[in-house]
Fold these 2 entries.
Entry 1:
Amino acid sequence: MKDPRRLLVLIAAVGLAGGFSAGCGGGSSSSTPANTNTITNSGSNVASISVNGGPLGNYDDASFTSVTVCLPGTTTCQTIDGILVDTGSSGLRILSSVLTLSLPQQKAANGNPVAECLPFVSGYTWGPVQTADMEIASEKASSLPIQVLSDTDFIAPASCTSSGISSDTLESLGANGILGVGLFAQDCGSYCEQVQTALGDFNPYYECASATATCQAVGESLTQQVQNPVALFSTDNTGVILEFPAVSGGEQASLSGSLVFGIGTESNNALGTATTYTANAAGNFSTTYNGTVDAASFIDSGSNGYFFPSTVTVCPSNSDAQDFYCPSSTENLSATTQGANGVTGTVSFSIANAEALFSVDDNAYGDLGGTFSSGSFDWGLPFFFGRNVYVGLQSTTNPNGYWAY
Amino acid sequence: MAALGGDVRSVQADQLHMQGTLRATAAASYSVQEIQSPAGTVVREYVSSAGKVFAIAWQGEWPPDMRQLLGNYFDQYAQAAKTQSGARIGRRPLVIEQPGLVVQMGGHPRSFKGRAYVPDLLPSGVAAEAIQ
């Protein structure tokens, strides 16, 4: 998936060393070549994205962009770079420590400020829900509820801190914020419209009477919830396309690409020949790898590798590549993805030795993968290299959104 | 009322805690108590024939109450999670594999899936793969 000549190489059936297998999963209706993508560089709906290590310069395989946030209805604005582009979540989250604007605070029905705890597997984000106008490229989302990440404005409740560790600082997040451009229009959806009263059930939204009060779970209407900004754009609101060239030579210090807003709304964002895989209500589709069906699979630019159950050799536990894969030589693999719409396709990918990759201080690693237990295949950022990936926002036609590639 | 490492009575405590419905199935050397909360979070607790909870698996829109489910193992989990996140910056599934505790959690907002077990408590002949 790195060499634009690969298709020719395959046709000629020569020189496969260091390449990838043609894919051995049979019976699929589609096979996606990963090496023929064209990057859209211009257009009022195109923002630059870069795999560049982020604000700390050491974030592996993550794409960053900048956004402008403004006091609603004004031209008092601040541009913030180092924002992680995440197709695995929805909503804009910004570190309080980088925000110089004093944004209006969202209030609950009882007048108290609303705060949110959003769990990610790598840690939760906590802080007040505030309102901003957000601009990126020539797109604008007005009166957008966002999350401001701060451990100090309000006290995170025990239900939040017991979900993991805090990601509310630059050191723990590795980014100045997260731009969630995933499948859904809100970060939570109908689950959050009312308080879940069973003690074991998590509540993302809270109202906090004061900085020292114990925050209480609160129901949050769909429009109050932290929103996917794309859903609030006036025209290019059907989803996004992430476009990256392939990584050359296995790894690069930086890799530039484009974040295109809208699908089928402009001359530069047509779906074209991409195959559509719809998601289920959980935002997942199915991946079959090595004979096993991983039903809770997903495509996530915010995951920094391919994470899946495999017999590929794991890196030593005492290395800084712990939990990544370390095969003695690059393994060329393939899997079958299947959407909720029943459409299937074969994806070829490779896993290189993570210790060897990390031994050179780069930021974009083409074949980075790691372990996870069974049942889930996480197609992280390497999947996006050399491939235009469409992330279709939920709609009447596709209520849970879709991926196309 | 901690679950992991606790005895079978803690399962009933968890059921009350989650206001859940309980469904039990039996395997050769252990039984599985499955609790589904009203909001759809599913927690499976694996109980050995000696009555000890040796493993837990979960799936739902959001993570379950880890403090409740991991009980005495929660602090070890929280410490290990901090250590993992410090190893290399990046967002990836949580994988904690220590001699006394294994915790794995993956997914994304609106879909979390994970499991935890104590290797020393696994009944003989039971592979970790059985915990789903």
Note: Chain A touches chain B through 66 residues (CB under 8 Å).
Entry 2:
Amino acid sequence: MTVPAELDRRFRDAAAAAGLLDVGFDVVDSPLGPLLVAASDHGLCRISFSADPEEHLDALARRHGRRVLRSRRAVERAERQLAEYFAGGRRGFELDVDTRPLPPFAQRVLAELARVPFGETTTYGALAARVEAPRAARAVGTVMNRNPIPIVLPCHRVVGANGSLTGYAGGLGRKEQLLRLEGVLL
Amino acid sequence: MEAVTAIPPFERFYGEHRDAVLAFLRRRLPRETADDLFQETFLRALRGYERLEHGEHLRAWVLTIAGRLVIDAGRRSRPFANELPELACHDERPAYAQLEHLAAALPPTERAAVVLRYGYDLDYDDIAGALGSSPEAARQAASSGVRRLRGKELT
């Protein structure tokens, strides 16, 4: 016997509504392809361009707790804001983010990254200087590469000192697309 | 060190057992009640999931939760139950509660088989599903569990 979709959805919603989840996630459509979006009770904790949930379950459980469940309700706020952003109607996100499982340095860098505004870029070195580690441009690059919440934490706005796009965990094509959306690239 | 079966992320646990839980409930209850209790079963499983210490016999565990809800639903649906005088009873706990206590010392498979068979009145097909074994193996586990309990009683 297969559980009917309606019954399945009702349980998933109820679980999120009751606050029983360590992490709720869902797969959300976007112009960059399907995104896996996950939130803990502290905020958004993962966005991934690899949208197959099976790839993420173990890591999410390890970082946030084993009560990981797919639930649209758990991510609907993030989903709405992402849709507005991609439609060109939103320049910033009003979402808490949960970077608690990351090392302190990465948390500091990502907090600083969050302040880089829509439509502007910065460099790895400048970001390093802003966390008072001016020689740590390379380490900042590593943090960008492992950014658990791309798009919302805008690592696509960080470029090389010579203005080149350098790299993007989701692929350079996506970095270009995001910068074009924000009017940085024509 | 004893190998401990890892507890899967809840999504995987739910995906693996939801169909069996719904089938179990619908065999015993009217469809609407069964569907309500399906949700309740997994909400309870979520509440207990943090406290699980190993990932063994998760099917048996979740069917035990469902079985308890079926028993409670049966009680509620007997309209005059509350008006009947309580019968004097040697042990007033329901069968499953008595058994869980008695069977606590049995090896896990036997314990699960005994509790599901005699505490929840599951048939061996359901128990086999819960234990991931054949109905015949489930019957053997239940009967060797009972033999072990008898042996203990005598010593």
Note: Chain B has a mean pLDDT of 83.
